[in-house]
C-alpha cells in the first residue's frame, strides 16, 4: 500500500527533531528543478549540464578497461583524505593551464567543487558570520551558506563582474558595524548565473583588498577553460598578493560531472582544517573516480576534449543569443558571455519568473528563476538560461516557447491594467547596492541605496 509522504502530520511530527540549521537551510532552485526537467518532453534550459554525449565512448571504454586491468585492487580501496598523489599531479597540470603554479601539497581532492563550498563554509563560518557573495550568486552555494546560518551580503554585478567600489563601500560599512566578513565568494569567469567576467582591473583591486585586509577570497572557477572569444584573464590566485585566495577547481565541466571530482588549493592552515572537515564528511574522495581521471590523463591529452566541448558550446551560445533577439520582447535584456554555460536574462518588472516557470513548464520548457540566485528574494524578473545541455535546434525552440509565454503574460498584464505603452524596461545592472540576509535570525535587512 502506498503511503503518503511528507503529509502535514509527518512534517509536524519530525519538525521538532531537526537542528536549527535544518530549519533555515534553503534548497537549491537548480537542484529542485532537476526532477521536473528530467521529463523527456521538457526542453530544459535550466540545468548546468555539460554535453557528456560528446565524450568519445571508445576512449572511456579504453580508460576503464585499462584501470580495471592494472589497478583494480587500488581503485576499489579507501584512499587518503586529501586525495591520491598522482591525482594531485593531474590537478597541478590543469592549474598550470590556468596560469597557477600550484604545489600538490596545497591541494585537497574533493567530491566535486560543490564540496569545496560546503567544507570552506563549514570551516570558516559560525552562525551569524558574514559571507560576501555576488548578486546574483551560484544557486548551488545557497544551501551551503544557509545551512551554516551565514549572513550573506550580495554585491551587484555589471558586465565587468563584481562591483568593487560597492564592495569597498560595503566593507567600510561593515567595519563601522564591527563586522569582519569570513570570506568573499566570487566566480570571476563566465559567472554562474550572470554569464559575466570580472575585468583585470577589478581582479587586481579585489586581490589587493584581500591582501591589505587579510581577508580570504574563495575563487570558484569551473568555467575558466571554457572560453569562446576574447582574451583569457589571470586567475585571482595567480595575481600578486593571491596568497589570500582559496581556489576551487573541478573536472565537472572539462571532463565529467558524473565522476564528482573537484579540488581546493588553499593556504596550508585553511587546508589542514578543511582536511579534518573532509574526514568527517566522507573519509576520502572516490578512488574509482580518481583512477578514472589519472588513467585518462595518462592515455589522452585532456585539452583535446576541452577544445571539442568549447566548439560545441560556442555554437550553442550563438544559437541562444540569436533566438533571444528573435523571440524575447524588446524590453528584455540579457548578458552576452564570452564563455561558460549560462546567459542571464532580465524581463520587464511586471513579470515574476517564478510564476512564469509554471506556465513555461506547461509549454514543456524550463529555466531557473532568478530568485534562486539571491538569498533575499531579489531576482524576481530574471532567469538563468543554460546553453550547453541541448543542441541548437532545441535551444531555439526552447527560447521560442519561453518568448511565447512571456508575450502571453505581457498581453494579459496590458489587458488587466489598460496599459498600452511599452512596459518599464529592466534596470540593466542587477543592483548597485548590497543587501544582507540574516539566516541566523531569519530576519531580513536591506542595506545600501535601493
Ligand atoms: C559556480 C559553480 N561552483 C561549483 C559548482 C559545482 O561543481 P561540481 O559539479 O564540481 O560539484 C558548479 C556547478 O555547476 C558551479 O557552477
How would you concisely characterize the structure shown here?
With 450 residues, the protein is of the alpha/beta class. Helix content is 42%, strand content 15%. Helix 4 packs across helix 11 (287-299), helix 6 (112-124) packs across helix 10 (268-282) and helix 12 (302-327) runs parallel beside helix 14 (392-417).
Please characterize this protein's 3D structure:
With 450 residues, this protein is α/β, with parallel strands linked by helices. The chain has two domains: 151 residues, Aspartate Aminotransferase, domain 1 (Alpha-Beta Complex), CATH 3.90.1150; 260 residues, Aspartate Aminotransferase, domain 2 (3-Layer(aba) Sandwich), CATH 3.40.640. Helices cover 42% and strands 15% of the residues. The protein is built from 14 helices and 16 strands. Strands 2, 3, 4, 5, 6, 7, 8, 9, 15 and 16 form a ten-stranded mixed beta sheet that branches. The protein is globular. Bound molecules: pyridoxal-5'-phosphate.
Instruction: Using the coordinates above, name the CATH class of the largest domain.
Output: Alpha Beta
Structural class: alpha/beta
Main β-sheet, in a few words? Answer: 10 strands, mixed
In CATH, the architecture of the largest domain is 3-Layer(aba) Sandwich
Q: Give the ligands present.
A: pyridoxal-5'-phosphate
Rg measurement, Å = 22 Å
Distance between the termini: 54 Å
Helix run count? 14
Count of domain modules: 2
Shape: globular
Amino acid at each position: 500500500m502506498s503511503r503518503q509522504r511528507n503529509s502535514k502530520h509527518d512534517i509536524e511530527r519530525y519538525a521538532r527533531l531537526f537542528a536549527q540549521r535544518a530549519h533555515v537551510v534553503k534548497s537549491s532552485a537548480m537542484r529542485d528543478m532537476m526532477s521536473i526537467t528530467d521529463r523527456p518532453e521538457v526542453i530544459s534550459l535550466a540545468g548546468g549540464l555539460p554535453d557528456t554525449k560528446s565524450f568519445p565512448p571508445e576512449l572511456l571504454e579504453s580508460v576503464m578497461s585499462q584501470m580495471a586491468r592494472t589497478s583494480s585492487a587500488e581503485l576499489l580501496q579507501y584512499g587518503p583524505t586529501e586525495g591520491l598523489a598522482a591525482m594531485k599531479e593531474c590537478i597541478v597540470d590543469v592549474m598550470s593551464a590556468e596560469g597557477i603554479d600550484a604545489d600538490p601539497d596545497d591541494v585537497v581532492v574533493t567530491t566535486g567543487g560543490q564540496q569545496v563550498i560546503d567544507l570552506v563554509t563549514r570551516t570558516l563560518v559560525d552562525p551569524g558570520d558574514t559571507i560576501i557573495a555576488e548578486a546574483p550568486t551560484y544557486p548551488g552555494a545557497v544551501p551551503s551558506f544557509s545551512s551554516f546560518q551565514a549572513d550573506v551580503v550580495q554585491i551587484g554585478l555589471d558586465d565587468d563582474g563584481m562591483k568593487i567600489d560597492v564592495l569597498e563601500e560595503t566593507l567600510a560599512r561593515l567595519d563601522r558595524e564591527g563586522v569582519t566578513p569570513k570570506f568573499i565568494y566570487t566566480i570571476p569567469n563566465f559567472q554562474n548565473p550572470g554569464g559575466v567576467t570580472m575585468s583585470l582591473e577589478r581582479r587586481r583591486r579585489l586581490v589587493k583588498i584581500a591582501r591589505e585586509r587579510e581577508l580570504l577570497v574563495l575563487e570558484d572557477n569551473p568555467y575558466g577553460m571554457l572560453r569562446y572569444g576574447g582574451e583569457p584573464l589571470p586567475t585571482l590566485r595567480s595575481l600578486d598578493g593571491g596568497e589570500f585566495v582559496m581556489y576551487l577547481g573541478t573536472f565537472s565541466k572539462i571532463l565529467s560531472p558524473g565522476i564528482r571530482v573537484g579540488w581546493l588549493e588553499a593556504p596550508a592552515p585553511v587546508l589542514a582544517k578543511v582536511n579534518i572537515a573532509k574526514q568527517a564528511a566522507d573519509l576520502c574522495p572516490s578512488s574509482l573516480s580518481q583512477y578514472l581521471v589519472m588513467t585518462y590523463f595518462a592515455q589522452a591529452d585532456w585539452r583535446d576534449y576541452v577544445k571539442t566541448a568549447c566548439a560545441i558550446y560556442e555554437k550553442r551560445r550563438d544559437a541562444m543569443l540569436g533566438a533571444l533577439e528573435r523571440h524575447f520582447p524588446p524590453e528584455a535584456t540579457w548578458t552576452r558571455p564570452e564563455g561558460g554555460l549560462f546567459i542571464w536574462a532580465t524581463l520587464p518588472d511586471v513579470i515574476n519568473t517564478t510564476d512564469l516557470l509554471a506556465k513555461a513548464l506547461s509549454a514543456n520548457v524550463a529555466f531557473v528563476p532568478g530568485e534562486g540566485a539571491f538569498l533575499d528574494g531579489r531576482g524576481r524578473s530574471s532567469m538563468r538560461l543554460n546553453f550547453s545541455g541541448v543542441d541548437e535546434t532545441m535551444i531555439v525552440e526552447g527560447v521560442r516557447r519561453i518568448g511565447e509565454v512571456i508575450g502571453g503574460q505581457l498581453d494579459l498584464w496590458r489587458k488587466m491594467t489598460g496599459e498600452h505603452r511599452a512596459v518599464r524596461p529592466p534596470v540593466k545592472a542587477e543592483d548597485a547596492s548590497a543587501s544582507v540576509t540574516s539566516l541566523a535570525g531569519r530576519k531580513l535587512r536591506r542595506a545600501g541605496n535601493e
